[in-house]
Sequence to fold (142 residues):
Amino acid sequence: MFRKLRWMGLGALIAYFFDPQSGRSRRAEARQRVPAVFRRTTAKAGQAGRGASSQATAVKAKAAHRKEAEKPQPDDVTLARKVETEIFRDADVPKGKINVNAENGKVVLRGEVDSAELIDDLVEKARNVQGVQEVESLLHTP
Fold:
């Protein structure tokens, strides 16, 4: 039964490709399409492998750099700019009313702000900057 179906299928395939009217174009199209199918499946398999490899590399890098490496103590100007960048990040902080100075790891905040909560927030943000050893707050409310 299956043998008969197999021979019938082979006969239909031969008739399809060696048809006197369109067989030549069908054979030419098959010569182009069959290798293209193999190229696509091979490329997809390669992409899947590359994707898994890049994900593994990313996980390894995240594990290795989980904590920021300790850096040498920045100079005073750099430290003051780092603190300014951190504390002036919020839009509600009055940038023109606060002065930031740094000397040997000690940061001094001077100026006038709207609330005592904002003073506490700014001091805490300044303490969290890497390289800051001490924060002196001369901030006050109006």
Notes: The CA atoms of residues 16 and 34 lie 16 Å apart. The longest helix spans residues 23-64.
